[in-house]
UniProtKB/TrEMBL annotation:
Stored InterPro entries: ADF-H, ADF-H/Gelsolin-like_dom_sf, ADF/Cofilin
UniProt xrefs under SUPFAM superfamilies: Actin depolymerizing proteins
Name assigned to this protein: ADF-H domain-containing protein
Sequence similarity: Belongs to the actin-binding proteins ADF family.
Gene Ontology biological process terms, A to Z: actin filament depolymerization
Keyword Cytoplasm (UniProt): no
Gene3D superfamilies recorded: Severin
Species in which this protein is naturally found: Ditylum brightwellii
Amino acid sequence: MSTGVVVQDEVSDQFQDFKLKKGEQLRYFIYKIGKDKKSIEIEKKGTKDKTYDDFVADLPENDCRYGLIEVEFETDDNRETSKLVFISWNPDTASVRPKMLYSGSKEAIKAALNGVGIHINATDYSELDFEASILPVVKRFA
């Protein structure tokens, strides 16, 4: 299902810098579909000193968003590493129309964020729990 929503150039440009650790040092991005319902734009950026909990706190409780975060963790063999994780936040409490729009537009932003191998869909806060839900998925890619 395609909605015709396009990704703003700024999203791709800043993602490339983020991926290559150029320019502004960030921990995460939160993206939203603009008021015109035609483009995906950057809503918030989290600086490098922010945590995963800050990222989750920046997601609206009753509305959909996309997020990209660099998750730092220790592997099972005690190496410090990090992975980029794309999260589609589509809470059960959101209205039907935004849920459909975000679900149908997800492939457009995933294509713009080329190279992110970990994609997680979350519909409630329990699916965003770091230790129980996120870390086990991320460790599979370490």
